Amino acid sequence: MVLTRERNTLDHAIWPATARATPDGDVAVGGVRLSDIAERYGSPVHVMDELDVRQRCREFRSAFPDAEIAYAGKAFLCRAMARWIAEEGLALDVCSAGELAVARSVRFPAERILMHGNGKTPEDLRAALSYGVSRIVLDCASEITRLAALVSADRPAQRVLIRVAPGVDGHTHPAVATGGEDQKFGFSLASGVAAEAVRRVLAQPGLVLTGLHCHIGSQITSVTAYQQAARRMADLLAAVQDEHGLVLPQLDLGGGFAVPYLRDQHGLDPLTLAEPLLTTLRSACEVRRVPMPRVTLEPGRAISARAGVTLYRVLGIKHTATGRVFVTVNGGMSDNPRPSLYGARYSMRLVGRHAVPGHRSVTVAGRHCEAGDVLVEDAELPADLRPGDLLASASTGAYHHSMASNYNLVPRPPVVGVRAGESRLLIRRETETDLLLRDVG
Ligand SMILES: Cc1ncc(COP(=O)(O)O)c(C=O)c1O
Ligand SMILES: N[C@@H](CCCC[NH3+])C(=O)O
């Protein structure tokens, strides 16, 4: 069997750190063959490379040694992930009582948890207070009074940050752009609403303002956008110092650092960002005569995306009258909604066997009842692809399982962790019994 080198290599920009192509056409991640994982746990199945996650955590910590790195749990959270994050010394950003429940179940240190959300419910706030999370990031005026009312007189004041909309364009997909004025997150800096939020928080005895926060969006490649946000936030730090004589010790610049999903795409790695961002912030603080605050960063995707691989079985191959070839797999928009939500592009690779030479461009479609349920529009796959073959999609560790749905009442796939030649179930496959449990009518 002849295989070109190009097709048998793995691009580690998008595949997990431990991924290796095996001589017989398979891929091993964490020392475990993907075809063995599909055999043992069924498909579709998400695979998470523990070492990849840990390495990404270490890269952030060494690029920003003085900063707090808070993993954004919305990208992917389960108990094992929360333990890895805690062990690597990161903090955790949660944005619901549900995410907090996972953190709580592994006793993630409350001192290292921040709670976010533009619409936190009273239940979210109560859960945060009851676990004693170190900071709650306030996002709208009514939340200031709601939280203050929940903080009882006999407990210590709650530390809070204020989320600011800094008016920065991160040049990303509109659905995940959160730095500008015309979106739902935060208090506007330009209109003075953020400065008014500071006044309101300072008037609440149950709340202690410890800093400011902004998050300009997700999948951002521009260092300049982060620099601009840092300057604008330094403006507000200075304004708070001037008006209230208050030095805020923390500045949370959010997450959003891009990762590549295809070999020709660019990401924004922590080492590239660190020096220009911190230099900009330091000099902005100097010019405005405010002390340099402690920086927090909140990477989600940049920690977990590349650790993930999703495996699918080919169910059928269809040739349309227009000449298009559809390869239908046993998953789709319920385990990966990103192509239909953002037009996100992915790769697909045959694993588990060698193909005879010869590739063609095909559309990999999901099993859901939507014409738009397409995972990859233009996958280069072997011409001898057949039903039963196993396909692997790389960079699926962030915003896949966490955004999965039960559309068409298809149970959500399991998540399997791999490390040092061993695999273990982290989240089991959802069953029809699970689905029926909620249906109590
Ligand atoms: C407040 C906040 N922090 C951090 C993140 C993590 O974003 P990303 O996964 O793009 O790093 C998000 C999501 O965009 C967010 O809303
Ligand atoms: N869900 C988005 C990112 C949103 C980040 C959360 N604020 C994605 O899949 O790219």
From TrEMBL:
Family of the protein in this entry: Belongs to the Orn/Lys/Arg decarboxylase class-II family. LysA subfamily.
UniProt enzyme class: lyase
Entry protein name: Diaminopimelate decarboxylase
UniProt KW GTP-binding keyword: no
Description of how the protein assembles with itself and partners: Homodimer.
InterPro entries listed in its UniProt record: Ala_racemase/Decarboxylase_C, DAP_deCOOHase_LysA, De-COase2_N, De-COase2_pyr-phos_BS, Orn/DAP/Arg_de-COase, PLP-binding_barrel
Residues recorded with modification N6-(pyridoxal phosphate)lysine: K74
Cofactors named for this entry: pyridoxal 5'-phosphate
Catalytic activity: meso-2,6-diaminopimelate + H(+) = L-lysine + CO2
Pathway: Amino-acid biosynthesis; L-lysine biosynthesis via DAP pathway; L-lysine from DL-2,6-diaminopimelate: step 1/1
Alphabetically ordered keywords of this record: Amino-acid biosynthesis, Decarboxylase, Lyase, Lysine biosynthesis, Pyridoxal phosphate
Transmembrane segments: none
Organism: Actinoallomurus vinaceus
PANTHER family from the UniProt entry: DIAMINOPIMELATE DECARBOXYLASE, GROUP IV DECARBOXYLASE
Source domain of life: Bacteria
